[in-house]
Amino acid sequence: MLNDIIATLLTVGGVGFVNFMVTEQLGTVNLYKDSNQARLGYSLIWSIVDFSIYLLAKNLLSSYLQGDVLLIAVMLITLVGAWLITYLLAWPLHDLLFTLYSKKTAQHKSKDFLIDNQSVLESTLVIEDKETRVYVYDFEHNPLGYGVLSEYSTDENNSCIRVDPFRDPDGETHLQDSYDDLMLKIQSETYQEKYDTRQFIDFKHRFIIIVAIEDPES
């Protein structure tokens, strides 16, 4: 009896960490950025799933195995089953929650909803299959770098992006525009017809990113 209790606690508790690691690797949660309340909610949901797998495996195998062999087999099956179910259901559940929350906030005319670890920076930079130009400045408007976005990090303790150099349509290269000159440029009608522009301001690390996403139909 005592072994059963210990095995249940160790299995469900340990597998809960596996749930977290899988969902974080898939990008549906962030183990270090999500609030304690959010982590508790995730843990409770996945613990129900894990415990259901544990009970099902134990009931199915109890006719064939007994004692410690049964416990070890059930623990292994729970571990593998939890990993597989988390891998298969993490994104569908994420998308379902996103849809439900977005509809509810739309009904109440609330602000746009960003689920889990989809940060403001991600929503600013993530544009698939389109060239994304970025111009980075500090809070004194000194240029820090510019180019075509290649990679970026949303780690709040290590904000960084990688950009590749680009040439203007005339084939000439030049230094990064001053902040004021770029502001004037992106507000022009010609520029706005060709690019979708947005601005990201990081008050913690004190930098500004101007983003220009090229419209292929322009």
Give a structural overview.
It is a single chain. The protein has six helices and five strands. By secondary structure, it is an alpha+beta fold. A five-stranded antiparallel beta sheet has the order 3-2-1-5-4. The chain folds into two domains: 2-107, no CATH class; 120-214, no CATH class.
Task: List its traits.
218 residues; 51% helix; 2 domains; membrane; 6 helices; single chain; transmembrane; alpha+beta; 5-stranded antiparallel sheet; elongated; transmembrane helix; 5 strands
Rg over CA atoms:
25 Å
Helix content: 40-55%
Total beta-strand segments: 5
Low-confidence stretches: 113-118
Classification by helices and strands: alpha+beta
Count the helices. How many?
A: 6
Question: How many domains comprise the coordinates?
Answer: 2
Beta-strand residue fraction: 15-25%
- Helix-strand sequence: HHHHEEEHHEE
Keywords: Membrane, Transmembrane, Transmembrane helix
Transmembrane segments: 6-27, 39-57, 69-90
